[in-house]
Amino acid sequence: MRLLTHNMLSCNIKGVTNGFPLIIEAEKVLEKPVDLNPDFLRNMFHKVEWKALVDAAKSLGYSELPESVDPAMLESPEFLHRFHHALLELHLEEGALVCPETGRKFPVNKGIPNMLLHEDEV
Amino acid sequence: MSYRTAQIRLVSSHPEVYEPCDDSFALVDALLADLTNLLEHKPSLCIEVGCGSGYVITSLALMLKEKVPDTYYVATDMNPDAVRVTRETLEAHGVDAELIITDIVSGLEKRLEGLVDVMVVNPPYVPTPEDEVGKSGIASAWAGGEDGRAVIDRILPIADTMLSERGWLYLVTLTANNPSQICRQMRERGYASRIVVQRSTDEESLHIIKFWRDPEIRPSLKETTAPNSESLLSQFSRFSFWKGGNSGGSL
Ligand SMILES: C[S@@+](CC[C@H](N)C(=O)[O-])C[C@H]1O[C@@H](n2cnc3c(N)ncnc32)[C@H](O)[C@@H]1O
Fold it and tell me: Which BP terms does GO give this entry (chain A) (predicted)?
């Protein structure tokens, strides 16, 4: 699971209001290089919740993202490279996503998060 | 490796996972038939709900790979085996999608509201007793409850929230699902629709319908019969007429 996907996921348990971002417990992290596309990054920049991405990257051991950002940074190749790496090249392969409100753990195996709920959570 | 669609011999399988069938092929044919539009559309985010073997999402990724290389693909299924099989199918074709085991798109709705440019769904659509819907394993691949609409009817409002202003939905339906009524209901949400592929076998007639937001259509969501539904109804009656005439075929 890439961190862009992590940035799209919230806890889906009925009644939970602060289910985003899910806290990452990483057991195994992979890096898979992909081509960098500045247009894609510029487009995604406005959709990504920045602090969630920074914290998620840190929990995968990558702390090169600036804590605060502004769109002017998209002109910097160095910034784009780091943003690209955190968003698309880091993969949570094994671990869990933890709901910040309830502590419920959603397992991630072979890079696939399991968001299925138990009957009493729907 | 440069295929235009997924190759059956490279599609992975599992006893509890739906194998590519007529409906899967018809959906991929619909995407191919609409490929020129898709390439122009340049979707940033595509989602498949109920990916099964991965045949459809893999085909979509292959079709767009060259000309729209940065599309982000997400595929979901409530059957964990299906999601694992989809991973293998994607890998065998050298393409990539993010996979999530979940009910429809549960967990993604909040953050993806209004961001999905293309959504493809081959839902469980076979009319069955209501209590067969959503069971674990292979039965959930087809069991659609009364009129086969149990899962479809849950997906339609979700698609409406997830689709971007320019978003498209491609949906597989069976005649028993009452597709013209589905189109009417989507029309009440402000969507136009078109049958991209129609296919008939001895047992069933499949329609692959494309939906998109039409600024000319004012969403009403009221339980009235939409005055503009005539054209859709006649589209469908025309197809059922065709069905009698020959074995059907793609448009
Ligand atoms: C008819 S099969 C289609 C499989 C594949 N997309 C294809 O076209 O060959 C329907 C798929 O939807 C999945 N499914 C059924 N109900 C679902 C739900 N509520 N949420 C997510 N997936 C579901 C089934 O597990 C099955 O894989």
Answer: rRNA (guanine-N7)-methylation; tRNA methylation
- Determine if the pTM surpasses 0.90: yes
Cβ distance of B101 and A39 shorter than 8 Å: no
Q: Report, at the CATH architecture level, how domain A3-114 is classified.
A: Single Sheet (2.20)
Cis peptide before A33 (omega within 30 of 0): no
Q: Which value does ipTM take for this structure?
A: 0.97
Homologous superfamily, domain B22-243:
Vaccinia Virus protein VP39 (3.40.50.150)
B74-115 pLDDT, tens digit each: 999 999 999 999 999 999 999 999 999 999 999 999 999 999
Q: From chain B, pick out residues whose CB is under 8 angstroms from the CB of A43.
A: 44
Contacts of B246 (CB under 8 A, 6+ apart): none
Put simply, the chain B residues between 74 and 113 with a CB less than 8 A from any chain A CB are 74, 78, 80, 83-84, 87, 98-103, 106-112
Q: Quick one: CA dihedral B84, B88, B93, B95, positive or negative?
A: positive
Environment class of residue B234 by beta-carbon count within 10 Å: exposed (0-12), middle (13-18) or buried (19+)? Answer: exposed
> In chain A, where are the structural domains located?
3-114
Nearest to B85 by CA among B182, B15, B157: B15
Those of residues 112-131 in B touching chain A at CB distance below 8 A are 112, 115
